[in-house]
Design goal:
By secondary structure, the chain is of the alpha/beta class. 62% of the residues lie in helices and 9% in strands. The strands form two sheets. It has a five-stranded parallel sheet, with helices on both faces. Strands 1-2-3 form a three-stranded mixed sheet.
């Protein structure tokens, strides 16, 4: 097809996209795309932004395919290529254009777009894969997801701060970064900054070191985190016992909150459960909305796996999802890890992902055989501060009884041993073991704290 004809077709496609994609996003990602070639099946375009191939495919793929179908009357695929030479020319032209615009309109929309791209690549520090669209919502995360999306749509209007807590690997960081991702793409004039608490602490220590203009360094450091519209602080529990850092966070929090800026915080525990956290910080963390995420139930785990397969365009037998979901229950991260391991092996061996193949790769049965009733009991005992002899005694102490119930439940779940075998180990009646198992199973339906406890013990057994 002639070059001009290809360009004309692309202009028509872009006209369709202009109607369906928000103006800021369209101007940043779609407008700069240029037509390169069309062989009748694959339409090739080039971009001046290195992030565009990933961003456009991840966020606007359906709209682009629909626009092509509407213009061409048939379904085609497309390919985006980053052109470094074109990018250099584009940036030089934009700098000249921006210089002119700054003299006339200092805060132009185009300037905002360029700033937006810069922060996407550096200061915002966001992972583009963490979006609301690929977060699988289950009963374990429904409220947290709704709160996060509300904050993303209207920063600092409701739920400020938003405090999300839960065990490691359940999706706290995903939701937090999805907020930043949504704001950057839909409210590009807002400045977003994401930071892990551990990185914040290290950066603070570096700026406190003697030598040079320490006061100047600290002023810049403070402004970096206070001169934003949305601050996302991950894993705040690492503040524990860091007195000077807590002081800095306190003043940063007040500065942002007093200026009606949004703050989002994640932690593996409630504010009141973070040792040495001062009351003035704890009360500030609790003054907005505190929501939790718990381990996903079976249906949600299957949905997460199905979503992973769909994103990777993999054909996977449904029994594979069931098998992985039944064997990796503690958190989303280990669930994804198991799926990625199976899919990687299938790719290397160039084979279909079947139940038999998944079993061979993951070998969960061998892992269960390796766990004994005693190893489970010891892990539970360490968590609760109870000895094996306590478990085997006739003690009715509440702490011992509660720990024993959990040990029985996990022994049954993780080792697949019969209740008779478990009863023999604990020196108890078979009916007592059955009662313990059913008691914990029922309580898990409503007790989120117990849910987190069992997930933590499960994880310790896999380390």
């Amino acid at each position: 097809m002639e070059t001009q004809e290809v360009k004309n077709l692309w202009s028509e496609v872009k006209a369709e996209l202009r109607e369906t994609i928000p103006t800021p996003a369209y101007q940043m990602w779609l407008e700069p795309l240029e037509a390169a070639d069309f062989d009748g099946n694959v339409f090739s375009v080039i971009t001046v932004h290195s992030l565009a191939p990933q961003v456009v495919k991840s966020n606007y793929n359906k709209q682009i395919l629909d626009a092509f179908a509407k213009v061409l009357g048939k379904e085609v695929s497309y390919h985006i290529t980053f052109d470094s030479e074109l990018a250099d020319r584009y940036q030089k032209e934009k700098k000249k254009e921006l210089a002119k615009q700054k003299r006339a309109i200092p805060d132009s929309e185009e300037s905002s777009m360029v700033d937006n791209l810069a922060q996407m690549q550096s200061s915002a520090n966001l992972n583009l894969k963490y979006k609301f669209s690929n977060f699988v919502v289950g009963e374990n995360s429904r409220f947290a997801h709704a709160a996060a999306f509300t904050v993303a749509q209207n920063p600092a209007k409701k739920y400020n701060p938003l405090f999300i807590y839960g065990a490691s690997g359940l999706g706290k960081t995903h939701l937090m970064q999805a907020i930043g991702h949504y704001i950057i793409f839909n409210k590009p004039k807002l400045r977003v900054r994401y930071i892990k608490t551990e990185e914040y602490v290290n950066e603070l220590i570096k700026n406190l070191q003697h030598g040079g203009e320490r006061n100047s360094r600290m002023d810049k450091f403070r402004q970096k985190y206070r001169n934003v519209d949305v601050l996302l602080i991950d894993d705040i529990q690492f503040l524990e016992s860091k007195t000077y850092t807590m002081e800095e966070i306190f003043h940063t929090f007040d500065s942002l909150h007093n200026n009606n800026k949004q703050i989002v915080i994640t932690s593996d525990r409630l504010p009141k459960d973070i040792p040495t956290l001062p009351d003035r910080l704890r009360t500030r963390f609790e003054m907005g909305l505190v929501v939790d995420i718990t381990p996903p139930d079976f249906e949600t785990r299957v949905a997460i796996l199905s979503n992973l397969a769909e994103q990777a365009s993999l054909k996977v037998d449904f029994p594979v999802f069931e098998y992985i979901a039944n064997n990796f229950v503690s958190n989303v991260r280990e669930l994804e890890g198991a799926f990625n391991k199976v899919s990687a092996y299938a790719d290397i061996e160039n084979t279909d992902i079947t139940l038999e193949f998944a079993k061979k790769v993951l070998n969960c049965e061998a892992m269960k055989k390796a766990l004994t009733i005693e190893s489970v009991a010891r892990a539970v005992g360490e968590f609760y501060g109870v000895s094996i002899s306590d478990f085997l005694s006739s003690s009715r102490n509440q702490r011992v009884s509660s720990a024993r119930h959990v040990a029985v439940y996990l022994a049954r779940e993780l080792t697949q041993k019969s209740f008779e075998s478990i009863a023999e180990y604990f020196n108890k009646k078979h009916t007592t073991m059955l009662y313990s198992y059913e008691k914990i199973k029922e309580e898990l339906r409503v007790n989120k704290e117990l849910d987190r406890t069992i997930a933590e013990i499960r994880s310790s057994l896999k380390e």
